[in-house]
Amino acid sequence: MFQYLVNAEGGLTTGGYAVCIAAGVLLFLLAIFFAGKNSGKSRASTKQLIFCAASMALAFVTSYIKIFEMPWGGSVTLCSMLFIVMAANWYGVRTGVLVGLAYGILQFIQEPYVLSLFQVCCDYVLAFAALGVAGFFSRSPRGLVKGYIAAVLARGAFHALGGYLYWMSYMPDNFPQALKSVYPIVYNYSFLLAEALITAAVISVPAVASALSQVKRTAVS
Question: Is the pTM of this model over 0.90?
Answer without folding.
Answer: no
